[in-house]
Amino acid sequence: MKRNKKLLLQVGVLLFVLGVFIFALEQQKKFATVDFSKRYSQNKTIEVAGFEEGEQWLGNYSYDSQRLLEGKSSITLSSWYGKENSIEKTQDIQIPPGYTKGYLSVYVADKQNLLSLVSFTLELQGEKDQKKEYNFTQQMSTGWNRLAIAVPGWKKITKRSFTVLSKPGTIAEVNLDRFWIENTSVYASELFQTQSKALSLRTIGERTYLFSASPVLENYQLSNPSSLRRGTITFSLIPEHGKEMSLSLNGTSIKLSNSDITKCSLLSNDVVSSSKTLKKNSGADNVYTFLKAEIQGDKIAYSLSNNGIDFESCGTVAFTERKPVQLGLQGSYLLDSYSVEY
Q: How much is the pTM?
């Protein structure tokens, strides 16, 4: 009998020590910080063309400040009544080893334009007699297109030209918005579980951002950590042509719309629970925006900042379940960094 009591006491002590160990382990905080300019410092993009004023294209075209995902303009290239129309630009673009993935952002306004299109092509020229043509006609659809380009293994591109041709008696036009070359696609899977063609890298000056450009709402689910039951998470981004952005955690979210950037809304299971007028335009284009979510017991406190130090509260909302962390973006945004403490 004494032996059994002693054994039970030992088991009790062991369970107590184990409980203390687990509790202590749970109290240890984990940190994760990603600065995209540092993470992708070896993956700078080659921005071949932004189709902005001052790029000095030769040919018949016009600038459009409405149909665009990045920059201040796109170029509208039109073909009237079956007459071929081309634009071209001569400039040396060096191609370092490993830069083999090229992409082109092109917009087709409607089905009528698409049906009127006979062909849309790109021709690249390198040194001496190096030439390669790409025919995108069969890949085109209405709205925004991200067209893949297998970049030749040349030392440099010396000239690029775009040509559009319409059917007789019709008008066809396309908008050219961005032409870039990358040396990696790892960003598409390592940060977010969500796979999307709206993501790319984009180098501006010395900084390389993760770039999201989409006319529709894209919900990116974070990979690490995929969910939180405690702690704080903060995203830093720059709206370029923002329409809507949100940060979601455990079935709740904060949402800002560029139709009214003075107001933030809190949602629970996609239903608005409260709204607040902000003192600052925290979601304005071309201004840093920090979205922060902090778990406080059974509630989540959401706040915003333009410098990452002075945060303005949007309020708190209760949660009852554990759901993935998601960043929702509609429009174009430069993602600078994110940090999480949990």
A: 0.88
